[in-house]
Amino acid sequence: MENDEEKVEKKISKRRRSGAQTIEEKKVSVPNKEEKAQANEPSKSTAKPAADKIKTESMPSKKAANMQANNLDSPNVVNPNSKKTSVDKKKKKNKKPLTKKAKILLSITLVIYVAIFVSVCFAGTFLGKRYAQVDIEKIDSEDLGIEKNVFDESNLNISKNEFNQIKTLAIFGTDNRATSDENSRSDVNMVVSINPTTKSLKMISVPRDTHVQINGSKDKMAHAYFYGGPQLAVKTLNQNFGLNITEYVTIDFYGVINAINKIGGVELDITEAERNYINKWTEESYGFSGRKYEALTTSGPKTLLNGEQTLAHARNRSIGNDFTRAERQRSVFTAILNKLSTKSLSEVMDLVDLMLQEVKTNINVIEYTKYIPELFAAKDQYLANIISRQIPATEDLHFETINGLSCVVTDLNAQKVIFRDCIFNK
Question: Residue 4 has what pLDDT?
């Protein structure tokens, strides 16, 4: 027979084997105040706080394993085996099953959201690639001489909302013959505005020889680009004509040739005299492109010109004058739009992608590309509402020789009013 001491000793050993704690062991598992505070703070690393480690080690092995499996040592986790409270039961009781109609609507909504998400992801990737191929050159928006009160100071017959929707940008065509347009003049100085409300597009040329203020001194408009690139050229347009332009596109001789060849040429009305001029001077254009010389053999309405021939035509001021040349440049711009209008939307997107590689700009290409489907849908209205003109008009200018240079002189204050009226008024 076992005595009482042996029985007690066996019971203690048995309890220890099963993982039960003695009074002395229980004292170890009680965390102090510092450890409690640490356990309640969000963990700054993947390791468990010291208090949790001590508690787990001191518990019976089976119980500790269950707690680790169910994350019961986390103060924010509810034991899934615990009984539901009366509040939970009440919530469950008040839940109404979805009707068949509600389930269908929910399914359709989910499908639409998924489709939108996929489309946005695809568009973002596609446009992101396009954006990466464009030569982006930012300019300082704080130093553009922007007229901040154009709407308030102008006698406009449009609403503020329509005014804000009008997109206006400057287009510069430089006489660059090298691989960089540094120290090149802008032979083309054009302001283009798009009005989505009236579905109209306006192209306004400023003659390259117009005598304007450039950083406090008078000089030709074309020289602003020579002195300070697109930054100073945009600033000069804003300060002299009271505009609020912040965006620009620059294209050089190479860009014109490549862009037009990429879209398969353009159709222009060419006189016999202009055809002869093109054939005489287009050899230089072929020198830029490196392609074999090809003479223009026809003239008349809708004559198809390639990039090299178009460049020679756009530079022509021997037949007519500088104003006639500016008119030719605007007709080339219109011809490009007409050519794009004959393509499908997917073809237009691809061609725009190719053409964007030929320019330098600060525009948000992704934002502008998103407008293409809308513009394409209303292309007939836009093409029917193209306004092409020159400011100052020939009746509002005269020529003067200033510092040995032939300049176009005009009343710039009067031209401010005319410019704003042309861009913003209907």
Answer: 57
Which tokens go with 114? 């998924």
pLDDT digits (tens, 9 = 90+) for 392-426: 999 999 999 999 999 999 999 999 999 999 999 86
State whether residue 330 is helix, strand or coil: helix
Neighbours of 372 (CB within 10 A): 14
pTM: 0.69
Q: What is the pLDDT of residue 108?
A: 53
Q: What is the pLDDT of residue 73?
A: 40
- What are phi and psi for residue 315, nearest 5 degrees? -95, -5
Decide: helix, strand or coil at residue 1. coil
